[in-house]
Amino acid sequence: MLKPSLVKELKVIVGPANLSTLPEELVVYSYDATQREALPWAVARPASSGEISEIILLANRERFPVVPRGAGTGMSGGSVPIRGGVVLSLERMNSILEIDEKDFIAVAEPGVITGDLQREVESRGLFYPPDPASHKFCTLGGNVAECAGGLRAVKYGVTKDYVLGLEVVLPTGEIINTCARTVKSVAGYDLTKLMVGSEGTLGVATKIIVKLLPLPEHVRTLAAFFNDVQCAAAAASDIMAQGILPRALELIDEAALRAVENYLKKDLSLGAGAMLLVEVDGSVETTAREADRVAEIMVHAGAVRIQRAESAAERDQLWNARRAISPALYTIKPKKLNEDIVVPRSKIADILREINGIAKKHELLIVNFGHAGDGNIHTNIMIDEADFPKAEAAAREIFAATLRLGGSITGEHGIGLSKAAYLPMEAGPGSIAAMRRIKQALDPNNILNPGKIFVNAV
Amino acid sequence: MLKPSLVKELKVIVGPANLSTLPEELVVYSYDATQREALPWAVARPASSGEISEIILLANRERFPVVPRGAGTGMSGGSVPIRGGVVLSLERMNSILEIDEKDFIAVAEPGVITGDLQREVESRGLFYPPDPASHKFCTLGGNVAECAGGLRAVKYGVTKDYVLGLEVVLPTGEIINTCARTVKSVAGYDLTKLMVGSEGTLGVATKIIVKLLPLPEHVRTLAAFFNDVQCAAAAASDIMAQGILPRALELIDEAALRAVENYLKKDLSLGAGAMLLVEVDGSVETTAREADRVAEIMVHAGAVRIQRAESAAERDQLWNARRAISPALYTIKPKKLNEDIVVPRSKIADILREINGIAKKHELLIVNFGHAGDGNIHTNIMIDEADFPKAEAAAREIFAATLRLGGSITGEHGIGLSKAAYLPMEAGPGSIAAMRRIKQALDPNNILNPGKIFVNAV
User: Fold this and answer.
1) Is A213 on the interface with B (CB under 8 A)?
2) Contact residues, chain A, for B177 at CB < 8 Å
């Protein structure tokens, strides 16, 4: 709880209309896509970095937590105010400040919806590649906090690869600019890349400078259906091994296919056991040639049917199926543990085999889909409330298998709350100690988003 | 000076043959490409991360500086042991440990020559894009320490974009692994990217995991000659603005052209006032089309002659001219200040105009060449010993102009010694304070490479 005098001070900073303390308002800011919840003591909706700095200075003086929040689409509890305090909602800072068509740069505030930025730059022949599945709702600031990946990461990389510079409010209140507007700079430590993916624990990004690319001239999309997921995984690996770099290479297993087909009431696969969705981009000729080559490789790897999207509508239909997986899964079970493990590409078939064994052992339904191109598989343990303990045991076994194969327990969701207990499985004590020393150095009073990333975070 | 007992302890760690204290041996490790010099007290040539950890633990106990060193090709004094101490030469740790053709990953020790790694992966149809001009001599470890850029950064990015993970010995002696072998991972703070470009002040990389790409199928190279450098700069900007992303886009001004022609005793330019060297890669068809389009754009921007490399020999000839600039410049004057400023691409013509004015004002010859594609210009103030003070004044004015145009004072060389005095022109006090807090948190005794990056670094 905040003292009334503090509520008053916060109201002076952001204006009375932009500070909420009523339970019915607070509840809107209490959860994210993990379905974890915790009520904050207050929600502030600042309009500028100056206001954020004032709030953070107050928090240091009075020692209350400050939890930055975008749209609440996070997958690891990063924006859930587990220790109360003030949620800093960046919803009012939602302007695209600049699109520089000569230098291929955009400058935006953190509350801008990622899909809005994409559309805006595409209308000018430019391209912002990071493409989280939630791009219609998620914010650029949230993407920066979590280093969001997405469907095109296999070719184009993740959010970090596009952030050139940031204006950041540090946990001690200073407002800094981390970089120039250039694609290169090595002036001192790379605070930009340290901030991206730090899950709101090291700073609040208040202005985001991103690199843009020329919009690819042409895109071709094709789907392939396989009898089983092992064949599909092998085909994905083969495509990459042949030196083809698709802009998307998505794998969908049988359970996910059935869930989507039921959800959309459409028979997409004619009963197949797995699907690969592949998209190549580039010039008209290159994409034609690459699409043919991809089709050949997939047939050779055992595809029973290839479907090429011949129109924008057909392309949308294929992608809508992919994007419908997450909601569709809730028609199977009321809850899921969604783990975004990542393995070296050539190990996808191995990890799927391991997951299958773990599912059988625990008598759980585990649904797999995701970014086969970069080895990032979304493995969803589907449960009723009562299954939670055995689901957690299964998750731990999946993480252990992932790490044995040279992988990481999170490719794009972050540690947050959901994976804090598992971080020590991946990062050794020396690495975690170094991370904690950095946190302590930049946030001595542990103001910003406490309780995340580290277990028993002080 | 090291106490004899410490020399003895160091000899036990690395073996007597791998510890030098004789002045004639030390002098070899005293300088880098900036021609700055300082003698270390000893040079240790460890063979493993374990030995490095032991040396660093000893340094913390006895409080002597440890200065990591690759091949000494650095451009900012990063490896010069300005405060004495022990130079940690990584020359013996020079094995390519693994090239994984399925997962497009290489694992190498820090002493591997970058060009050797490039050649080795290319022989297997793979590609390691970072390409510093010194690739025949520089080491991967040095590239990691400085976040080396190079000729292909315009399309492919810099060293940081390829480093997936590191084994690092921290300044307190712990050996950590910063990442998985996957192209994605967001498990905790990004220690990998914090280490890359930290100039040997935050850790010693002892194993380097890099991402590889498929080797592009085809490359086409062309040169264009212009009457003046402003036209050439405008042409470079036009190429990018048309949505073409060449793998290299190098600008060479008149003074650099004349120096190279004298040095190579060849008339390349037939008296032209500037040259652009452009290289596109991709499929045979795409490169043919892009090369034609590039030629058109350059003619439209005022190119007086286009020369296409029709054979590997012709391509080598063009690149040899570009790579000969640095040595050629020493035929003009005995010394140079080589500043690697970077501006937004569209501002190249502006910065060249500013530099021209500054050169006239100080009556200095300033030679410009470099990576027009990413705005990274190597501006070389050519001097005799006596000119040093006015060259420093000119450099400061060039940095001020660069920052006014939205640029950075260093695109790829790093701060080191050479630019420490200028870092506060770019990074505000809040940013520098945050960097110093990180340094203090990870290296409380200021063991690793002290005196670099920060002025009066404690």
Assistant:
1) yes
2) 428, 431
Among A122, A147, A189, A436, most B C-beta atoms within 10 A, so best to mutate, is: A189
Pure H helices in A242-309: 254-264, 284-300
Q: Measure the CA–CA gap between B139 and A366, rounded to whole angstroms.
A: 46
Q: What is the mean pLDDT of chain A?
A: 94
**Helix, strand, or coil here: B233?**
helix
Closest CA to A84 of A31, A38, A43: A38
A244, A198 Cβ separation under 8 angstroms: no
B189 CB neighbours in chain A (<8 A) are 194, 197-198, 202, 435, 438-439, 453
In the numeric block, which tokens belong to residue A154? Answer: 């296999």
Q: Cβ of B153 and A344 within 8 Å?
A: no
For chain B positions 246-265, those within 8 Å of chain A (CB to CB) are: none
- Nearest 5°: CA angle at B371, between B367 and B375? 95
The nearest CA of chain B is from the CA of A146 a distance in Å of: 8
Residue B129 DSSP code: -
Q: Exposure pattern of A178-208 as b/e (b: 16+ CB <10 Å)?
A: bbbbbbbbbbbbbbbbbbbbbbbbbbbbbbb
User: What is the C-alpha end-to-end distance of chain A, expressed in Å?
Assistant: 19
CB A277 within 8 A of CB A283: no
- Separation between Cα atoms, residue A432 and residue A423, nearest integer Å: 9
End-to-end CA distance of chain B: 19
B432 contacts A146? CB cut-off 8 A: no
- The pLDDT, as a whole number, for residue B455 is 85
- The pLDDT, as a whole number, for residue A323 is 87
Contact predicate A135/A121, CB 8 Å: no
Q: pTM for the whole thing?
A: 0.95
| A188 residue type, one letter | G
**A312 touches B: beta carbon within 8 Å:** no
Question: B388 to chain A, minimum CA–CA distance in Å?
Answer: 23
* Minimal Cβ distance to B175: which of A176, A217, A430: A430
When pLDDT is averaged across residues A105-118 and rounded to a whole number, the result is 98
What are B440-452's pLDDT values in tens digits?
A: 999 999 999 999 9
Are the C-beta atoms of B192 and B179 separated by less than 8 Å?
yes
Q: What is the pLDDT of residue A458?
A: 43
Tell me the residue ranges of DSSP E strands in B78-174: 86-89, 96-100, 105-108, 126-127, 163-169
Return the bridge partners of B408, or none: B342
Q: Is the ipTM of this complex over 0.90?
A: yes
Average pLDDT of span A257-268: 92
